[in-house]
Write a structure and sequence with these properties.
alpha/beta; 6-stranded mixed β-sheet; D-Maltodextrin-Binding Protein, domain 2
């Protein structure tokens, strides 16, 4: 492509080539050329070395590019790659192979063997820290990083970063939870108090999976609590950042107990397993089932606020999930430029919208999100609104999920209830916090 490249971008590229080869993901300021051998703009400064333009060929020796994507979008991705190459004949020499590798498997495979991994691959955002630590992601800088920030919603752009540095191109903003509700029953879905009151008055059920560590965080994160884990280069958990054992944690746990005390409360998060419900916290994967169950009264909204025991109003938060497209560090700068441009194209507004239309993947691109078809998708619109309050999910040990389940079960069984003293609630949270910290030792 005939385009200028910022020196900040090329700093990363040069380190991949000169310093560390295929496993590096950091660098110093270096100039280079464009994909057709044109001289790029050079910004002189500390750590900047000059590289002659004839050192970087228009097309290098390595013209084979492998892409890993989920099987359901393999054919779609192949068609988009073909369209990209047709529109950019300077990239015709590159041979692109699409392989069906899901987001979960892709991250594990890359961490195990970066060199044998794909050049471009899709992965879930909760794996980004491990991938960066393993040297499996090329840093995205300059115009590309600016483009990512400007083109995508804040949650997706943030999920593509580690420590403020961008490492991937967002593909979707469609993994999270929100409220499905019966609009003939729920008069105001914006407050938990009204939802509960309406369900009780109508003899209808309200479903919220308080025993699931994924959904449970909605309350604790909503009051401002933190629960994240640090990992080392091998993916081992080295630290737990948690403050559940606090006044704000007590407020969250009290609210969980308050909701569970309602005659309308049912523990769960699956429309298919729900009965006689007027409201349920669930995800986009159950939108068709919700439409079938609620019929003409089908409606969606972000999660509600609640009035805490301290008199303050809190917005339910929780985890958000995003799909990202990463690039493996490359030794060949021309191939790297091809990967950058192709990844940008595959995550552009038009391609994200086409992917939504064909496969139902919710776009992260704000222009695609504003399309009338996407806007008419009530589930995606509600999720997009909720993701503004969500926290991108990181890595969590298996023990956390079991421990969160036991905390929720204590509420369900009545061991923790609306009459439990603040001291006893704090004691329960202190035990929970100590256990969570032990999983990183």
């Amino acid at each position: 492509m005939k385009k200028k490249v910022l020196s900040a971008l090329l700093a990363t590229a040069m380190v991949a080539t000169v310093v560390a080869g295929c496993g590096s993901n950091s660098g110093t300021d270096e100039p280079a050329t464009t994909g057709e051998g044109e001289s790029a703009d050079v910004v002189e400064g500390e750590g900047t070395d000059t590289v002659a333009t004839d050192e970087i060929p228009a097309v290098g020796d390595d013209t084979n590019v492998t892409i890993w994507v989920a099987e359901e979008v393999s054919d779609f991705t192949q068609a988009q790659v073909d369209a990209f190459k047709e529109a950019n004949p300077e990239y015709e020499p590159y041979n692109v192979t699409i392989e069906s590798v899901g987001e979960g498997d892709a991250a594990g495979n890359m961490i195990t063997d970066v060199q044998s991994g794909a050049d471009i691959y899709g992965f879930a955002q909760d794996q980004i820290a491990r991938l960066v630590a393993a040297g499996a992601l090329q840093q995205v800088s300059g115009d590309y990083a600016t483009w990512i920030d400007e083109q995508n919603d804040a949650g997706a752009a943030g999920a593509a970063k580690v420590g403020g540095t961008t490492y991937a191109f967002p593909i979707t903003s469609d993994n999270g939870y929100f409220l499905y509700y019966d609009k003939s029953v729920i008069s105001d879905p914006s407050t938990m108090e009204q939802i509960i009151a309406d369900c009780e008055a109508a003899g209808k059920n309200f479903y919220f999976d308080i025993s699931n560590g994924w959904y449970q965080t909605a309350f604790f994160f909503g009051t401002g609590c933190e629960l994240t884990y640090d990992t080392d280069d091998e993916g081992n958990f080295t630290g737990c950042n948690i403050d559940y054992a606090s006044e704000k944690g007590v407020v969250a746990l009290k609210e969980i107990a308050q909701i569970a005390s309602s005659s309308s409360f049912q523990n769960g998060s699956s429309v298919d397993n729900a009965s006689n419900f007027a409201a349920i916290v669930d995800g986009t994967w159950d939108s068709e089932a919700a439409k079938k169950a609620l019929g003409d009264n089908y409606a969606c909204a972000k999660l509600p606020t609640f009035e805490g025991s301290d008199g303050n109003t809190y917005q339910l938060s929780g985890f958000g999930g995003f799909k990202l497209l990463g690039i493996k560090p490359q030794e060949d700068l021309s191939k790297l430029m091809f990967c950058y441009d192709l990844a940008q194209y595959l995550t552009s507004a038009d391609v994200q919208l086409a992917r939504y239309q064909e496969k139902g993947w919710g776009p992260s691109n704000v222009t695609a999100q504003s399309d009338s078809a996407v806007q008419a998708d009530e589930a995606l619109s509600a999720l997009a609104e909720q993701l503004a309050f969500a926290i991108p999910q990181g890595n969590y040990p298996d023990q956390y999920w079991s421990r969160a389940e036991s905390l929720g079960d204590d509420v369900k069984s009545g061991n923790i209830n609306t009459s439990t003293s603040d001291d006893d609630l704090m004691s329960a949270l202190e035990t929970f916090q100590t256990d969570c910290q032990s999983y990183a030792q």
